[in-house]
Amino acid sequence: MSTLIAPRLVSSRHQARELTAGLAGDLSDTAVMVDCSALQASTPSFVDELVKAVLVDRRGSRLVLKGAPERTVELARRAAHNRGVADRLETG
Amino acid sequence: MRLVLPEDPDVRSWLSRMHLGAVIDAFGAWVEGALPRVPERGRRDTLIELERFDDAHGSDRLASFVWERLEGGADGEVVNQLFEATGELGLNVVEHAGSPAGGFVAAQHYKAGMPEERIIVAVGDVGVGIRESLRPRYGDMTDGEAIRRAIQWHVSRIPDEGRGQGLPGVVDGVRGLDGVVWIRSGAVSRKITRRRETTSEVSRLQGTIVGARLPCRPGR
Questions:
Q1: Considering only CB atoms, which chain B residues are within 8 Å of A79?
Q2: Which of B165, B170, B174 should one mutate to test binding to chain A, selecting the residue with the greatest count of A CBs within 10 A?
Q3: Which residues are bridge partners to B28 per DSSP?
Q4: B13 within domain boundaries
């Protein structure tokens, strides 16, 4: 499993691309866990880009959001649903 | 570029207090008449003066700045919504506006401690406007139709299934907290509240301005 640490405030798609830039290009056998324990607020665009970068572009086996605020979880579920990858998103 | 100041002295003073002069200076603009000198007392808790950004880093910085300055001054859901609005609207400027001068943000906190306490945030640009931004994908339309389209989910200049959430999300979130959104682009201004939407014709604007007003403690 690869682990990323989300900063306290995240807003742009650019930030999501920066956060995921170090991940391998093919994650079809890898789960990615994002430690959101410090995260306080996120925008829909950041969360959508995170879902896209991990589950769509790199075909990640799972994206796990750990300790995310309720609003971020809601945004991630919506983004994963829009992109047809809701079965590979875990929140908790 | 020539800036003609408004006649109302109160508006001139407000523009001066919002540091319009400093922003305009960066563009070598000539100001017709002078902005008045306004004595400044510390208003860190109530005012975010006009700030410019020109890329995603700048937009991120300003969204975080809005959060830091407003945190604790309103209900958490209001501060969160203003953070989301600033971030999304800033990103729209960077990704879609084609604004050669970048974007601008300003905010003000009114009537602190009173029942009608509220916060207004506005993000603007001098880019192509909403109609021109959408035209390549959706064809010709009026400014009013363009704004109506832009506030619908999944409408975006970019054909991607995750796009088209920024502006409708702002409208939805602000409405849900009993706030008001103004969108001005081209020759049209649209005002959106929880119960109604109204469109009016205005003088043509180069670019787009979106403002959001939220009560600090909705439902109380």
A1: 162
A2: B165
A3: none
A4: yes
